[in-house]
Write a structure and sequence with these properties.
The chain is an alpha+beta fold and 136 residues long. The protein is built from four helices and five strands.
Length: 136
């Protein structure tokens, strides 16, 4: 089980989030986060002492649908329950704010993880609008 401390809506700098994502995702490109977080239903961070080790953003449609975006855990802290704690805390927070549905998309390898925290498998689609593989 994790000893990580989960904090809802902490003050996060672009540098802290970019450092976390760069450590976790091979193709991460540094970007600003302030405008995105300002429009979020909520977001949560996981800390090991004062070190940021995990993050999840909860976007929403302004109604009853919420969406997990950018869930990530520092590689050195994976398989310790940090991701599970973040997702469960995000689900509780979204529910308290009136969301009735929580959506997430993921690569097939992560299906067992998301099933373990209560997500049911469903079919969905995604269309890339920008970048090398964008639809024309």
């Amino acid at each position: 089980m994790t000893n990580a401390r989960i904090v809802e809506r902490p003050t996060l700098t672009d540098d802290a989030l970019n450092t976390l994502f760069s450590s976790s995702w091979d193709r991460h490109e540094r970007r600003p986060f302030g405008a995105v977080l300002a429009h979020s239903l909520t977001y949560l961070a996981a800390y090991d002492h004062e070190k940021l080790v995990g993050f999840v953003n909860v976007a929403w449609d302004g109604g009853v649908h919420a969406f997990l975006l950018d869930p990530t855990v520092l590689p050195s802290h994976r398989r310790r329950g940090v991701g599970t704690a973040l997702v469960k805390a995000a689900a509780r927070a979204a529910s308290l704010r009136g969301a009735e549905w929580l959506h997430v998309d993921y690569v097939p390898d992560l299906e067992p993880f998301y099933a373990s925290v209560g997500f049911e498998t469903s079919r969905a689609g995604i269309l890339r609008l920008r970048g090398d593989e964008a639809a024309e």
